[in-house]
Amino acid sequence: MLKDFEYLSIRYKDEKLEILDQRRLPDIEEWMESKTPEDMITYIKQLSVRGAPLIGVAASVALFVYVRDHPDADRKTIVEVSDQLRNARPTAVNLMNNIDTMIQLSQPDQDKRDYSAEKMAELAYSIVEAEVEMCRRMSEFGAELVQQGEGILTHCNTGGVATPGMGTALGVIRAAHRAGKQIHVYVDETRPLLQGGRLTTYELEREQIPYTLICDNMAATLMAAGKIQRVLVGADRIARNGDFANKIGTYSVAVLAKYHNIPFHGVAPWSTVDPACPSGKHIPIEQRAPQEVQGASGAFGSVRWAPKDSQTFNPAFDVTPNSLITSLILDTGVYDCQSFEKYVEQIKGNLS
Ligand code: MRU
């Protein structure tokens, strides 16, 4: 029913949906099967599956698997299951956009009782393919901006493990490297969950792209030393006015870039744009557990250095206002954020 596919961190083969457990990278490559929506919700919440495009794709395929395995489920139950998947994490809008597409476009006919698994299979596959293609297109648009020999700072992980394709910001880096631009990447480790230190480094190593890993608080020193000519980051939700939410720490990088006069770009597919969201103030920001800030945990075990009851502040994302963004690089082109609202209407019109 659903055609097989395999990407760096998600695959569907022999009727099994599997994801690469991103918590265990870079040293352990362990695939886990997602048999039920509950499995997928757990994987998304614990960041085994992470990155805005990937969670949207993974949840869509998980919804298909549920409908396939429950031929007797009625409409109400399927909608409830889709809502649970939709609510697994609140910030990345790809999740909501993709689940809404699955539910709206597979509406049963009036005289039929159920959503059709066939239709859901088709939709899930087209969502996967579209994300791969959008990654390719935005990577090409972005790579055209990159100049020979640039030092590029990136934050979090926006690559092949965060998407089913070549990535968003890391896709641009990949495309620039493949085009022979001789870039050097500076990778923010990205506290508290170290997506840069664990995952971006993993991907850059695999592709032999020259990089230097830094702690988040070292970016200013590198900028002042003239080592960084461009900042490329991903996004989890782009509001209509061009403000966007991305991994916590992105806003501080944008402020630093503005001060040092360094171009700062957000790179994302159309599935990350939320035309219904007027500005960054309206983006829901996920708050996470104190333990992530009180210490660290991963495949290496866990360690706590702060007092057990220490009070913490742990938002998973922050919002970068459009005034700090040089341009947004989407799969449809490169846009000036100050007039993004106008473009959103145009792109919506072209796509419908
Ligand atoms: O909490 P995460 O790891 O899911 O956050 C991911 C990010 O913030 C990424 O920058 C964003 O999703 C873009 S990934 C292509």
Distance between the termini: 27 Å
Portion in helices: 25-40%
The H/E string reads: EEEEHHHHHEHEHEHEEEHEHEEEEEH
Q: Count the E strands.
A: 16
Count up the domains. 2
CATH class of the largest domain: Alpha Beta
Globally, the shape reads globular
Distinct ligand kinds:
5-S-methyl-1-O-phosphono-5-thio-D-ribulose
Q: Report the CATH topology name of the largest domain.
A: Rossmann fold
Instruction: Profile the largest sheet.
Output: 7 strands, mixed
Mean pLDDT: 95
Beta content: 15-25%
Pfam family, one: IF-2B
GO molecular function, one term: translation initiation factor activity
Protein name: Methylthioribose-1-phosphate isomerase
Pathway: Amino-acid biosynthesis; L-methionine biosynthesis via salvage pathway; L-methionine from S-methyl-5-thio-alpha-D-ribose 1-phosphate: step 1/6
